[in-house]
Design a protein that fits this description.
By secondary structure, the chain is an alpha/beta fold.
Length: 345
């Protein structure tokens, strides 16, 4: 079952790629729907997500007649069967074998699987393996045990894989930073007061006009420590990147979101200095052209301003749109980068 936050974003976007992966129970009306259902969106407090229609019916709900929520297409069923096979296997599964098992050609099945999940079957399996190892490590397990139990042939393979993704272990983020030391500082900049916070792995928070109180609310179970020599070196790089924004890919990040959010954040880091993108362009770039609203929500959920340059995203009509720290800072950042600002904004 995917996380409730990701499921709700899929519902708001009416994303067909999530059909067959869960159903949306609407407690106020007593029905359950596909994520892509065209009915008017319910209030969030009236929604509960279920693995499938059977689980929803046990809870007393009935299927939606508009979206035929109990019907699963052949493509959806094939992807679900492949996901189950990947999760059940201790060894990597060949694309040709997966495709043959569900009755498709390898090339077609690869496209279909990626359209449904955002990842190829091989990348999906790697992500599952990496998350399994990270969860084991965050629970206090020995490195070698966690690495081999997750299916890696050697610790070096795990370290190579873990470097491919941004983020501390998912469980640490879910638990409010439990077991993690976060060093922080509030510094003056030409854009105003700036909070920078980092774990040993990278920057986990960059914001304006915030202080340690807001940081503590985001990571209530982390150990917060001010300053430090190693942190001071990182802080200097961050300040330089903010005062002269450009390519900050050399600065390590430690962020965690849903798979969709992380895909959006990675795409934001690919926007060149001096250029902008629309929410629709970002959604299309991550393979979800219908998820424009979800892309906007992922943009707004960014924990690390400037380094993940969400300020480079504007509306399709050319206006600046919103920004968590105010349009004045957004406009200033874009001007420093040489971007062409929309007229009258």
């Amino acid at each position: 079952m995917i996380a409730d936050e990701e499921a709700w974003l899929a519902v708001l976007a009416r994303d067909r790629a999530f059909d067959g992966r869960f159903v949306t129970g609407v407690l106020s009306t007593g029905i359950y729907c596909r994520p892509s259902c065209s009915e008017r969106h319910p209030r969030r407090e009236n929604v509960r997500f279920f693995v499938d229609g059977g689980e929803a019916r046990v809870a007393g709900l009935r299927p939606c007649l508009r979206c035929s929520s109990d019907e699963v297409s052949r493509d959806e069923r094939a992807v679900l069967l492949a996901i189950a096979a990947i999760k059940a296997s201790d060894e990597p599964l060949a694309l040709a074998g997966l495709a043959a098992d569900v009755g498709y050609s390898p090339a077609h099945f690869q496209r279909m699987f990626k359209r449904a999940t955002g990842l190829s079957p091989a990348a999906y399996a790697r992500a599952l393996r990496l998350e399994k190892a990270q969860d084991a490590l965050s629970s206090g397990g020995r490195v070698t045990d966690a690495v081999y139990d997750a299916g890696y042939s050697a610790p070096s393979r795990f370290y190579e894989a873990s470097g491919e993704r941004m983020g501390m272990a998912p469980s640490a983020w879910r638990d409010g930073g439990r077991g993690v030391t976060i060093r922080w500082a509030v510094v003056p900049t030409s854009l105003g007061s700036m909070l920078v916070a980092a774990t040993d792995r990278g920057v986990c928070r960059l914001s304006f006009n915030e202080g340690p109180e807001e940081l503590a609310r985001r990571f209530p179970l982390a150990e917060l420590a001010e300053g430090g020599t190693a942190f001071g070196n990182l802080l200097g790089q961050v300040i330089a990147s903010v005062e002269a924004p450009g390519d900050s890919s050399h600065i390590p990040l430690d962020v965690k979101g849903t798979a969709f959010q992380e895909a959006v954040w990675q795409e934001l880091r690919r926007i060149p200095k001096g250029e902008t993108r629309s929410y629709a362009q970002i959604a299309a770039a991550v393979g979800k052209p219908g998820a424009v609203r979800a892309a906007g929500s992922a943009n707004g959920a960014n924990n690390v301003a400037v380094l993940i340059p969400c300020h480079r995203v504007i509306r399709s009509d050319g206006s600046l749109g919103g920004y968590a720290y105010g349009l004045e800072i957004k406009r200033d950042l874009l001007e420093r980068e040489g971007a062409e600002l929309p007229r009258g904004d």
